[in-house]
Automatic annotation (TrEMBL):
Superkingdom in the source lineage: Eukaryota
Record's protein name: Uncharacterized protein
Lineage: Eukaryota, Viridiplantae, Streptophyta, Embryophyta, Tracheophyta
Length: 30
C-alpha cells in the first residue's frame, strides 16, 4: 500500500504542476 500511495502523491503533484503551468500560460496570453 505504501508504494502505491507514494505513486499517487507523485501523480497528484505532477498534475498540480501541469495545472499551474497551464493557468500561467493562459494568464500570459492576455
Amino acid at each position: 500500500y505504501q508504494e502505491s500511495r507514494m505513486g499517487l502523491a507523485h501523480l497528484e503533484a505532477t498534475f498540480e504542476t501541469l495545472v499551474d503551468a497551464f493557468v500561467f500560460l493562459d494568464k500570459n496570453k492576455d
